[in-house]
């Protein structure tokens, strides 16, 4: 179903926090997705049932931008961030392009990023984590309380190449112990 706004805005209730383990998972309903409200480009499966079958499925886009955030991170702590994904057997357009996982603390913070090559990932049924090496974000002691939010995103907006078949199961942010 196509709505008047082509972009999907995050439902802030689509986050699951495990305070004891310091883990936050953000499910696809909690993502901001460019062109995510247009069913020619994206499909959000089982939007009311959290869990492994719940995913944002990319049909086709030339502009990949998926973002989310979590607040109340602790000063002086380091967090690892990333996405759990699978690739459909009919995935296309990923060869020879770089996808970036990027994160920052606060809206005005400086991005930390890691380049990922999804063209090397074959079809799979078990979600894999990207990036494979942890992307770590440090919350500095100088970070004001109102800026203690980690913003996380998955981007490929430079190639103008059409791509599809990516399935995003969740994003994660967890404290390094």
TrEMBL record:
Domain of life: Eukaryota
Listed InterPro entries: PP2-like
Protein name as it appears in the record: Protein PHLOEM PROTEIN 2-LIKE A9-like
Organism ancestry: Eukaryota, Viridiplantae, Streptophyta, Embryophyta, Tracheophyta
